[in-house]
């Protein structure tokens, strides 16, 4: 029943999902890919999947690798299709992924291949995408790269215009305008951004906060603070309406803070800048943190807090150890301002050559020249170098007039007036002071206009909200009856559909239930048959196990009985030999029989151990050797003055190896007892059995006795016992050596049999 309920829910989900909007998430695209038949359709879906992974927020390596994997699959399919457009699209997506992975050279190479394919193919839209991506590879911090970036964006915008793609054309215009703004060409930027705004509105786009933000900061830079404040507040308002919490909101608050700063409203400036800093910290974006912090430094300087400004600057330097060109300029200029305000002119002087060098690397009318000139003028005025101050005031005047920076120009006139007055150039000083007053009064009125603009924007927003509410109420009153009628109609349709669907599902459930009942009956029969077969097999297996246990017990009993009888037979033989000795008068014969008796005892001990042990295949060698020595002590009088030193590793040997080892021990110990020591002397016999790597065993019997007689060769003149030990060593597949060094050592090396 659980499975039937699941089937019902899946069918219901399928019906409801068909009534909604199509999903473009990864699972849906993967499902489409499984059902795709045409190669071109597969390529298109694979590239859509790649775009999803590459376009995800953040720089997750796994996402980028997944994107590259999908692009590679698309490229392999197109290798069969050989469609130039799809080949170029593959290179285009490769470039996007490489840019996200900071592999800029590989990205440019892929874009160059795509461009080579598209230029002769008359595909302006695709070529526009490639050129936009190509432009993203260039930096805004170097003028040569910035110019190339603008050129590529402009070409892409023209291509989008040809295809009639207004959304992409608006985006290209916005990006181009932003580049002109970074270059300090505000007039060109305003023209492009206004075109972009118009196109976006024409396409019905709502998230226009980025365009408003750019228009606002440019208006502020050109001295139109009323318009700058208006656009800045519109950017904040639009971002809130669109629930924009991205890093773009940090830029919006930062630029709004700059507008407040230019109007002299440092309290609101710091408030906006701190909001921007909070967003930068949340995203852990170092570049945004440095940009906002630099502007906060400016508010500290304006409010007479150079120490706080310097502390923040030092924190920036600590975080940003390898700043780019633009950031080196910001940091150095503000360092000069901070140290000049604190009257630490030697420390400020250290940054002057770097600022002058950075100035020479830029064009004369670059926006960032104004930051350098402002810092240099403040330093030279503070150190009473009025000629240099006047010189840089003239350069600042030229740049500000060319760009249109009204506020900076006003402050420059005031400082120029100070320099001229110190140089006693009074006509020029009066002229510059008059220009300062005129522009300052104008800015004052603009500031007031900015306040009015803020109020007007708020009034417009409130009025718009009221109008919307009134319109909504009217719409609700006018359409209420229609909604009620439509609701009744929909309810009737829904009831009919539910009845039909319910009847169909009930029938389906009955059919499935009956089918499951039949299957269950059949399965029960099959299971019963299998259980009967298993029961019979278990009975047969149990009888077989019982029989095997009995046979095993009988086998063990028989083996024990064999060892017992072998041991008894060896005892009988030894008794016969003892009887025979009583009738012999030849000393050599008696000696030979005694030695044979010892050998039989060595073998008999082994069979006795096997008979008494639970394990009827292995001999515990430490126990066996001790019992063998005990036997020899009982049969030789000389043993009482000999000390036996046992160094036996716990080893268990198979009976096939234990017998020859026991016989070798018997021969070596017997020889040591009989010949190693004088009759009245004492000595030590060391018996060792040591384990070596790879299951190798070393058996050694060493004494500290008198050794061999002079000129005696044990292998040519040795006794039968020596020959026997050699033969037994060969049986063990080992080696034997008899050495003389402060006594005699018998050393046997052999490999232990395992299993």
From TrEMBL:
The stretches annotated as TPR repeats are 250-283
Q: Which Gene3D superfamilies does this entry report, sorted A to Z?
A: Histidine kinase-like ATPase, C-terminal domain, PAS domain, Tetratricopeptide repeat domain
According to the record, the segments passing through the membrane are: 498-518
* Database matches in SMART domains: HATPase_c, TPR
User: Keywords assigned by UniProt?
Assistant: ATP-binding, Kinase, Membrane, Nucleotide-binding, Phosphoprotein, TPR repeat, Transferase, Transmembrane, Transmembrane helix
Instruction: Report the residue ranges that make up the Histidine kinase/HSP90-like ATPase domain in this protein.
Output: 656-754
Enzyme class, spelled out: transferase
UniProt-listed Enzyme Commission number(s): 2.7.13.3
> Entry's InterPro entries?
HATPase_C_sf (IPR036890), HATPase_dom (IPR003594), Sig_transdc_His_kin_sub2_dim/P (IPR011495), TPR-like_helical_dom_sf (IPR011990), TPR_rpt (IPR019734)
What this protein is called in its record is: histidine kinase
Source organism per entry reads Chitinophaga ginsengisoli
Q: What is the lineage of its organism?
A: Bacteria, Pseudomonadati, Bacteroidota, Chitinophagia, Chitinophagales
